[in-house]
## 1
Amino acid sequence: MIPTENGGFRSRSASQTRKKTRMMNSSTTECRSFIFRITEQEVLSVYKKVLYSKTLDDDQDVSQLATEIISGACNQTWVIILLSAGHFAAAVFTGSKVTVHKTFHRYIVRAKRGSVQSSNDAANRNNTAKSAGASLRRHNEQMLEESIKQLLQSWNEEIKNASLIFIRIPQYRKALFYSGKDPLFNSKDSRIRTIPFVTRRPTFNEVQRVHQELFSVTIHGKKPMVEILTPPRPIKLKKPPEIKQQVEKLPSSQTDSEKDHATQKEPMQLNLFEDNDRKNKKKKKKRKKP
């Protein structure tokens, strides 16, 4: 279920539920969510990262936390930040509405290698690439960091007023956010949470999907607890069928003689006419001789 502005809830559609099942890792479903039994036949779950972080006291009443967060979710400000390779996307939400958002992309990944230029330079310090492409990627990487800093600094007021900040960044980018002379965030800030499920390439649509997933309360209905706690089986996507040249086949009801006649080449008759024309031309030439 998804909180609404009037304090109630609306159910997520079946397609959204199926998408969630596909995206969840098959290892530990119960470790990602708190499961609450409302009645003997009604069970709901909320992501743990929405309720508390490692910096908070583990002895806090989870039920009370859930009640406070869910009841005031429509008036809270959440920040979602996604960064992967050269793709960056971020947005500020007040309730379910987008306040501000921004996306941009820089070319920093080496072609057919899948790694950013800085990682390759760190692994080969004695033999760094000196090509024009490598220089361009290094420059773009610096521009990407500067663009992120300028954007988040311009959102300083929104970030200060945010109740929760969800960040998904690679390991080699944590220094940009949490260290240095002027870090963007304090690593001990209790509002900062990681995203507890798989995310795709950072885009505005993906930021909206992540927010909707975190902003939702899943109602399991009358399912038994064993079924709720059982991790879903990983779903393998089928490869698209290869396009093959279509070959027309004759019906099996045809006789052998009909098949032979159907497979006979038509140019045979044309060749016979061509041979007769050649013979007639030769005869005419012979008659013209005295």
## 2
Amino acid sequence: RIEVRGGAIKPTDAAFHYFHREKSEIVVTTPTIDSDGRLSSWPEGFFDQHDENLVSLLAPREK
């Protein structure tokens, strides 16, 4: 997400896959990433690093 926001990679070249169990099935969720590095959805309990990355994502862009 940070590299997408910084322009190092395109949003379409990055993907996150979240796997979780619902009853006896495994469900895969793949949120999209926008050009600011934001995910279209944020599954509950996903990626504890979120708060730390948020600081980097909210910081002004370096020129």
## 3
Amino acid sequence: MQTENGGKSKVSDGTEPQVESGINLDKIEKIKADLETSLETVLFWLTCIWFGIAGGFIAIALEDRSAWFLLEYTHFPFCMGILCLILYNATDNYYVLNVFEKRIFYHFKVFWFKKITPFLNSEDIAFIGVTSIYCSNDDTIWHEYKIILVDRKGNSIPLSDPNQNLQTTNQKAKLFAQILGCKFEEGREKASIQIDKSANGEVAARLVDEMVMTSDQRAAASRKIYWMVIKGTGCIVIVALPTAILITIFLLGRH
């Protein structure tokens, strides 16, 4: 689906912002905002962890003949990896924007079980924009972009996976803002979304260039990344620690 993209960033203020994506929505009922949700991400990494444990057992057994007994214990992590892989492929979660109702619904599906629940109304949405994500690999530096929705409580909710096509991401975000009738700002390189909350609880969001971010804002961003790492590590520990304990018990029991 193609949309028209303006050359400059446009911000519409007021309760009924004028956001034009260049698409006639009269004949469109629903728009799908597909992305990899947290559940799908967890299932993916659990698959990698379980297969990694099974592969580690096999590698140790092949390296040291005295550890061949480890092959007896590869069945459990291998089966768990297969189970997580099946669940990952059977899971299909995404958001649906209803054009006529101006609401967002959450689509949850695992195997044959499917459930669609209301997620946000248009009046609960404060802002939709495109944020820039700094990426680096050895000597290569680039930016990726994803659509972010900010609700009236100040929560930021991703509506797309990161990608390197800024123009396409802006077009899609503009379409979402047109459907929901909320404030919108086009993304640009090296600009991220800043969320401010006033004393009376009002939420305001805008794009801020990386170079003009204050030390407090950078510290807040660092804390957010820190807690994301902590949560991710916690999920890994929950799976890896019981497995390590079982392995230790098995090893001690053989001597």
## 4
Amino acid sequence: MEPGAIVARIGIDSMLGTDIEAAQTLARADIALYGAKKRGRNRIEVFRSAARPDIDAIAGVN
């Protein structure tokens, strides 16, 4: 990486059409963020609970 280079890793989740609370959405976005960090620089990851059914329990979604 070049000195002064800017990189980004972003985790995304949506509350639209759900009955989950803001704190749960932030927890799910945080899980997506750590997935982006794991996969490398300049990544955007969207939280998808269907891909990992156990993840809602980790994020505190009932």
